[in-house]
Write a structure and sequence with these properties.
With 280 residues, the protein is α+β, with helices and mostly antiparallel strands. The protein contains eleven helices and six strands. One of its GO terms (molecular function) is cysteine-type deubiquitinase activity.
Length: 280
């Protein structure tokens, strides 16, 4: 998946998004509104025009604060990131737009070819921040590992959070400490107990995206291999509950099958469920 060609230690940390520190209510609302609008652009029926988002205005408001605490600087960086996302979603340059569209088509074609080879077909998952967990839930329902009524992103989020929380020694060395959060600094380069608990809470109860650590946790929590098809090297990554990660040389026909997309929606990483072709 994202950055899936790296070795064990690097792959665990490669896709993890830092956990944001708490914001003041007014700033929190400001950023929530902006990011919600950006995320909604992934869904055609709720698209927002670029001039309605105004991310650069938010950046200026945050950076204009007379007192720049660490939290203020973090909020400004988040706003700049959102502004960059907005620019990537609807670039002003037609040539850039054409290039991004071509990259998305090429990625889709490469993934579809791999799916056909392995008798799989993409089942679209809603791009709402829960995509990894919803895709895994869909696969678990198909395999009879979870009853349909329980096959939800809430269930898989809880499973991932619980597994990581109960295996802290395995995951902590690979979880980056949020650079903006200096509270409870341990001096070891590892998360403090408070930061780790907050990280697990965000997995369990927010829409933060999942990455390599969460895929590994889900594979082990449900004791099932997870295959991830991508447009990259290796083209298929196997997360095995006993051996962590592998390449397409160790493919198993059973287990969970997902596709990982870098360019499908333009807002970042996305996962879909890959159902057997005969089911469609």
């Amino acid at each position: 998946m994202a950055k899936k060609s790296k070795n064990k230690s690097k792959s665990v940390a490669s896709t993890l998004l830092p956990v944001a520190s708490a914001m003041e209510p007014e700033d929190d609302n400001l950023m929530d509104d902006l990011l919600a609008q950006l995320d909604s652009k992934a869904e055609e029926e709720s698209a927002v025009a670029p001039n309605e988002v105004q991310p650069n205005k938010i950046v200026k408001e945050l950076e204009a604060k007379p007192k720049q605490s660490a939290k203020d600087r973090f909020q400004a960086r988040q706003a700049r990131r959102a502004a960059a996302l907005a620019q990537n979603v609807v670039p002003d340059d037609p040539e850039v737009q054409a290039r991004l569209e071509k990259e998305a088509r090429d990625e889709e074609e490469a993934i579809n070819k791999l799916c056909q080879h392995h008798g799989r077909e993409i089942f679209q998952i809603n791009p709402d921040g829960h995509c990894l967990y919803s895709a895994v839930a869909d696969q678990l329902a198909l395999l009879g590992k979870l009853p349909g009524s329980q096959a939800t992103y809430s269930a898989t989020r809880a499973a991932a959070a619980n597994y990581i929380e109960s295996h802290a020694d395995h995951f902590l060395p690979f979880l980056p400490v949020p650079e903006e959060d200096t509270a409870g600094e341990t001096g070891t380069g590892l998360m403090s107990p408070q930061q780790f608990q907050h990280y697990c809470s965000t997995i369990r109860s927010t829409a933060v995206w999942g990455g390599e650590p969460e895929v590994q946790a889900l594979s082990r929590a449900f004791n099932i291999p997870i295959h991830v098809i991508q447009d990259g090297v290796p083209p298929i990554v196997l997360h095995d509950p006993s051996e962590n990660t592998g390449t397409d040389g160790t493919i198993q026909q059973g287990g969970i099958w997902l596709s990982y997309h870098r360019r499908m929606y333009g807002l970042g990483e996305h996962y879909n469920s890959l159902r057997p072709t005969l089911m469609s």
